[in-house]
Amino acid sequence: MMERAETVRAVNRLLRLARELNAIRSPDHRERISYAVADTREYFRANPEAELPAPGEDALFDMVQSLASACESSPEGFARSCDDLQRTMDQQEGNTSQRLCGCAPSDGGRWPGSSLA
Q1: DSSP-derived secondary structure for the chain
Q2: What is the spatial distance between Cα 16 and Cα 1, in angstroms, rounded to a whole number?
Q3: 109, 13 in Cβ contact below 8 A?
Q4: Alpha-carbon distance 106 to 109, whole Å?
Q5: I need a surface site. Which of 9, 22, 63, 84 has the fewest CB within 10 A?
Q6: What pTM value is reported for the model?
Q7: Local confidence band at 100 (pLDDT 50, 70, 90 cut-offs)
Q8: Model confidence over 28-68: pLDDT tens digits?
Q9: Domain boundaries, the chain
Q10: What pLDDT was estimated at residue 98?
């Protein structure tokens, strides 16, 4: 089973990348965010064959899902969606996300093409 801490780290990486891409608004930012959301979704599976959580079953998963469509909005609207995701993480994990943010996971904590470490 995927550990929740691994899932939180993946969501944290997604959030950092999403904020970076929103700031620079490169021509492919929507595609890169969609790719990162799809990759992060996989951390919510209990095992590779398991189903993803149903809508409403996991608030953090629901917020990750909403980030893909939010990238179609204005930079300010997308930033608000990122803030909502951060609040959800903080509420669920009791500031665990803040402690994990500086961790260096085995993959280096980087998304392909990201300057984030």
Answers
A1: ---HHHHHHHHHHHHHHHHHHHHH--TTHHHHHHHHHHHHHGGG-SSTTSPPPPTTT-HHHHHHHHHHHHTTS-HHHHHHHHHHHHHHHHHHHTTHHHHHTT---TTTT--TT----
A2: 25
A3: yes
A4: 7
A5: 84
A6: 0.74
A7: very low
A8: 989 999 999 999 999 999 888 999 999 999 999 999 999 98
A9: 4-100
A10: 47
Quote the tokens at residue 115.
């300057």
Length of the chain in terms of residues written: 117
Name residue, tokens 């890169």: 32
What is the per-residue pLDDT for 10?
Answer: 95
- Name the residue among 52, 84, 53, 51 with its Cα closest to residue 66: 84
Q: Which two tokens stand for residue 27?
A: 């021509």
